[in-house]
Design a protein that fits this description.
By secondary structure, the protein is mostly helical. 92% of the residues lie in helices and 0% in strands. The protein contains two helices and no strands. Helix 1 packs antiparallel against helix 2. It starts with a helix and ends with a helix.
């Protein structure tokens, strides 16, 4: 019982870290794109994808916890 809870806990934290890393990578990419030229729609899509992926990750983590 305890070992499975520990595994879930570790998996949650690894997931959170990977999501945060993804966000940081996307943000730096977005900033780079913004500097390149007027690709506002690309920037907007990336931001939306970013928000959606984080939302999905968080909701899946809540399911695992409950």
């Amino acid at each position: 019982m305890m070992s499975t809870q520990l595994l879930i806990y570790i998996a949650n934290h690894v997931g959170m870290i990977s999501v945060l890393m993804m966000c940081l990578n996307n943000v730096s990419m977005i900033l780079w794109l913004e500097k390149q030229s007027e690709m506002q729609w690309m920037v907007a899509t990336l931001l939306m994808m970013n928000v959606m992926s984080v939302g999905k990750a968080l909701s899946s983590m809540k399911k695992v916890v409950v």
